[in-house]
Design a protein that fits this description.
By secondary structure, the protein is an alpha+beta fold. The protein has three helices and two strands. A two-stranded parallel ribbon has the order 1-2. GO terms for molecular function: nucleic acid binding. Pfam families: DDE_3. This is Transposable element Tc3 transposase.
Length: about 70
Amino acid sequence: MTADTYIDIFRENLEISLLRIGLENNFMFQQDNNSKHTAKRSQAFMKAKRIKLLDWPPQSPDLNPVENLWSVL
């Protein structure tokens, strides 16, 4: 996936969903340091939309809450 595709997906899906549920800019978006997330185009898009980002390392299962549920399931 390219940065442009990432931005398109965000624009066409997440942005609309946030408006529907009334969050708009009242949220923090989590993403890792994958190249499509850190690309200048992606960063500029997020900044222009005033999206607060929570950056996470790309390979860190200890920071992924769902990983703690597998033993229960």
